[in-house]
Amino acid sequence: MELTAAGLKAYDGSDDGKPIYVAIKATVYDVTAGKGFYGPGGDYCMFAGKDASRALAKMSKSEEDVTGDLDGLTEKELGVLDDWEKKFQAKYPVVGRVV
């Protein structure tokens, strides 16, 4: 499945009838199993329905960091992002890509 950033936003957990998606490096994961974390009121709800690459790389929950833009990240931050990507790959199914 291919989703635009606007299309991804529809899977932010606000509609109980839809799954919750989070993207990392444009790969979309179904994180519904982690609803307690990514659903409304969860510790990581700001990532739901978005590409959270930059925020995960920077270990940030700041709204301005919740983007797929990797420009200016340090090697260390990119390494942190790679670690997050591996965790998501092991835990959540891939359902598509952000285009």
TrEMBL record:
Residues 3-99 form the Cytochrome b5 heme-binding domain. Pfam families: Cyt-b5. The keyword Mitochondrion does not apply. The keyword tRNA processing does not apply. GO terms for cellular component: endomembrane system; membrane. Keywords: Lipid-binding, Steroid-binding. It comes from the Eukaryota. Gene3D superfamilies: Cytochrome b5-like heme/steroid binding domain (3.10.120.10). SMART domains: Cyt-b5 (SM01117). GO terms for molecular function: steroid binding. PANTHER family: CALCUTTA CUP-RELATED, MEMBRANE-ASSOCIATED PROGESTERONE RECEPTOR COMPONENT-RELATED. Belongs to the cytochrome b5 family. MAPR subfamily. This is Cytochrome b5 heme-binding domain-containing protein. It comes from Colocasia esculenta (Wild taro). The lineage of its organism: Eukaryota, Viridiplantae, Streptophyta, Embryophyta, Tracheophyta.
